[in-house]
């Protein structure tokens, strides 16, 4: 992958050089993509190619959860409503209720938890079925989240990949990479025209509004912030950041060549930085530790240069 | 008409003084012989034999032409003899990989000379060896095949200025272990150099895939066109070199074999199947073991297990974390 020079965005010259060195480090491990990091209190920011719509993969679970929590907060949805997830019809996935082999009944309010903490596809799709894909999209537009589009359930990603490659992950990845080079997509959920998409700007904007209680209702945003703090995946955005004094509340997104994570880094010092990292790579592997670490290094550089 | 066969019939009848004895000598039926003589007489425009007497005698024309006919047949015989001799002593061109052990190749040439066979060794790239077999310019070549099916398997490993594995005994190299360690600032990790012999079709594909699966960026692998440059960079400690053990030893490099044997080299000795004169290309039994030694083939037959551990396929395809 020979990426063109991206469009950099930075509040100061120092922040520009941070953005430039992050871009170069990503290039060294074979990743390209989009980054935006913003101090949600001062508004200072740095990043590159921030307005490109990118297929979101599991990052879409954040706006989904917000809409569900909004309905609970407004009283339209009872959080105690039981939902039964049947192994025969549930969505595919390696974690959470998606991995269960026997029917399970859980309350709507609790399904948000595995959806965000372990990226559970079955819980997420149960929520999608409850509130409706179109309704999530419409609600986002009412809130003025212009750069985010929700168009399908999580299971659609598996269906599209399996549709072209059967159950062969390696083949699906090869096809996706070939399509990316050719600029056309045989896997529809990787096509920005049909996928759930968001730009780095739109995602940081959303995180900022969630953390500042400037969207939905305070009960909903507080619950979303709380649950996002329990995410169990530390390999990416938080790989070089976490300590007892620095916390990362995030949501990852991984699908074929996509490796994303959005999140807010908060420190005991009171600094709060929202970060959206959306990457893709032609690496023919599902695990790329060095790319995850490069994302983690980027998050650390961004946080340290943006904190007061 | 086949003038030579007809002249042969003419000379035989003249020398034997009898159609039946001439037919016996040539191992053909007498009517065939008679027809040949008649055809030749027609061709030359006059009778060669007087058949009116009991004993067959040559006509004046037959006597006049006999030495010329013998001369033509003698020259043709000489032509054939020359061709046979030339073919028997022809150089047999053998295509080998460019990083063979020169001393072992010298043994191949000497073993040929001892048996009266001239072996011309050409060090060629894998593509050139394959195309040389296809266009007939090579009589023998060591062709690259997948190690699982190969007659000769050459263990590939990583050569380096300092041993990549810590133990003093030779240990297997796992590609995953080439990832830089976290928490150590060891500068940029060394490139993995790949020479032309391993930059071919399926072998490249396999190696690149294994590198990606081991969590290494594609940029770590670098193709080099010159073996000398590769050795120089490796000796300088800037890189590790994918090569066979004898090559590493010859250049004073430490070497450890790759644990994944599906990444090793496989070779098959191809022999040209075209017919030379009346003979097939001779099979040279003594050649193959000597060549196996020259490429550094493993002596024991190791079973190659290409089965890869695959976690739940369906989960891998779905959106994850």
UniProtKB/TrEMBL annotation, chain A:
This is Beta-lactamase class A. GO terms for biological process: beta-lactam antibiotic catabolic process; response to antibiotic. One of its GO terms (molecular function) is beta-lactamase activity. Residues 35-279 form the Beta-lactamase class A catalytic domain.
Automatic annotation (TrEMBL), chain B:
Keywords: DNA-binding, Transcription, Transcription regulation. GO terms for cellular component: protein-DNA complex. One of its GO terms (molecular function) is DNA-binding transcription factor activity. PROSITE patterns: HTH_LYSR. InterPro entries: LysR_HTH_N (IPR000847), WH-like_DNA-bd_sf (IPR036388), WH_DNA-bd_sf (IPR036390). The keyword Transcription applies. Residues 1-59 form the HTH lysR-type domain. Pfam families: HTH_1 (PF00126). Belongs to the LysR transcriptional regulatory family. This is DNA-binding transcriptional regulator, LysR family. It comes from Streptoalloteichus hindustanus. The lineage of its organism: Bacteria, Bacillati, Actinomycetota, Actinomycetes, Pseudonocardiales.
């Amino acid at each position: 992958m020979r990426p063109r020079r991206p469009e950099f965005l930075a509040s100061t010259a120092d922040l520009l050089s941070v953005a430039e060195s992050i871009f170069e480090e990503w290039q060294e491990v074979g990743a390209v993509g989009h980054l935006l990091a913003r101090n949600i209190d001062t508004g200072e920011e740095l990043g590159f190619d921030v307005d490109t719509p990118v297929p979101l993969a599991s990052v879409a679970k954040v706006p989904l959860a917000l809409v569900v929590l909004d309905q609970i907060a407004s009283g339209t949805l009872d959080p105690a409503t039981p939902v039964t997830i049947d192994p025969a019809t549930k969505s595919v996935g390696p974690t959470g209720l998606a991995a269960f082999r026997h029917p399970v009944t859980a309350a709507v309010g609790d399904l948000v938890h595995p959806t965000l903490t372990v990226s559970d596809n079955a819980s997420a799709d149960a929520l999608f079925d409850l509130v409706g894909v179109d309704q999530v999209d419409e609600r986002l537009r009412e809130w003025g989240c212009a750069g985010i589009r929700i168009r399908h359930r999580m299971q659609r990603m598996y269906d599209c990949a399996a549709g072209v490659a059967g159950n062969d992950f390696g083949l699906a990845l090869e096809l996706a990479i070939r399509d990316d080079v050719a600029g056309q997509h045989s896997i529809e959920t990787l096509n920005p025209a049909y996928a759930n998409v968001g730009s780095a700007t739109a995602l940081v904007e959303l995180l900022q509004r969630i953390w500042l209680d400037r969207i939905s209702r305070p009960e909903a945003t507080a619950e979303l912030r709380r649950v996002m703090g329990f995410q169990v995946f530390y390999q990416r955005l938080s790989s070089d950041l976490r300590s007892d004094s620095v916390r990362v509340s995030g949501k990852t997104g991984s699908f074929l060549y996509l490796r994303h994570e959005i999140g807010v880094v908060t420190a005991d010092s009171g600094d709060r930085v929202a970060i959206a990292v959306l990457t893709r790579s032609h690496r023919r592997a599902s695990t790329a530790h060095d790319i995850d670490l490069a994302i983690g290094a980027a998050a650390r550089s961004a946080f340290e240069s943006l904190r007061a | 008409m086949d003038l030579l066969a007809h002249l042969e019939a003419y000379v035989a009848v003249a020398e034997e003084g009898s159609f039946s004895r001439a037919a016996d000598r040539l191992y053909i039926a007498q009517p065939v012989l008679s027809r040949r003589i008649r055809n030749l007489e027609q061709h030359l425009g006059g009778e060669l034999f007087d058949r009116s007497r009991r004993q067959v005698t040559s006509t004046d024309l037959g006597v006049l032409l006999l030495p010329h006919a013998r001369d033509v047949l003698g020259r043709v015989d000489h032509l054939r003899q020359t061709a046979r001799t030339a073919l028997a002593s022809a150089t047999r061109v053998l295509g080998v990989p460019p990083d063979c052990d020169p001393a072992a190749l010298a043994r191949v040439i000497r073993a040929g000379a001892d048996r009266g066979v001239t072996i011309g060794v050409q060090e060629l790239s894998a593509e050139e060896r394959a195309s040389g077999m296809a266009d007939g310019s090579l009589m023998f070549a060591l062709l690259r095949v997948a190690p699982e099916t190969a007659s000769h398997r050459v263990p590939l490993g990583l050569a380096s200025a300092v041993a990549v594995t810590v133990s003093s005994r030779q240990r297997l190299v796992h590609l995953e272990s080439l990832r830089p360690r976290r928490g150590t600032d060891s500068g940029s990790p060394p490139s993995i150099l790949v020479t032309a012999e391993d930059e071919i079709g399926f072998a490249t594909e396999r190696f690149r895939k294994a590198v990606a699966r081991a969590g290494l960026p594609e940029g770590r692998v670098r193709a080099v066109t010159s073996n000398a440059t590769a050795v120089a960079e490796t000796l300088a400690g800037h890189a590790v070199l994918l090569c066979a053990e004898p090559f590493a030893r010859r250049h004073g490099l430490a070497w450890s074999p790759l644990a994944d044997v599906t990444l090793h080299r496989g070779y098959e000795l191809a022999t040209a199947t075209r017919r030379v004169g009346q003979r097939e290309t001779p099979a040279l039994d003594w050649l193959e073991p000597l060549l196996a030694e020259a490429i550094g083939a493993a002596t024991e037959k190791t079973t190659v297990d290409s089965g890869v551990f695959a976690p739940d396929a369906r989960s891998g395809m779905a959106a994850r974390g």
